[in-house]
Amino acid sequence: MTVTVRLKFFASLREKLGEGDTLALPDGSTVAAAREALRSRGGVHAEALAPGRAVRSALNQKMCAETAALADGDELAFFPPVTGG
To answer: What family does the database annotate (predicted)?
Structure first.
């Protein structure tokens, strides 16, 4: 079984990776698995989502940890940390 998630990218990640995409993953996958699958595409994906890069994630519009489990039809967003002023 697989789950398909809708991806969204914001701020500098959107500039590099585009507005969004879809990603099919094995059932039981996590946010970390999605990030790794995107990195495995190579090129700008590997650079923008590299380990150690500060990237936050939100699952269905709520901040989440990389251990969060994904379900079919979820919306997963990636964005850099933001600061306010």
So the answer is: Belongs to the MoaD family.
pLDDT of residue 84: 60
Distance, CA of 68 to CA of 16 (rounded, Å): 25
- Whole-angstrom Cα distance, residue 11 to residue 79? 6
pTM: 0.93
Q: What is the pLDDT of residues 74-84, one digit of tens each?
A: 999 999 987 56
Structure tokens at 35: 């990030």
CATH of 2-79, one of 2.130.10.10, 3.40.50.150, 3.50.40.10, 3.10.20.30: 3.10.20.30
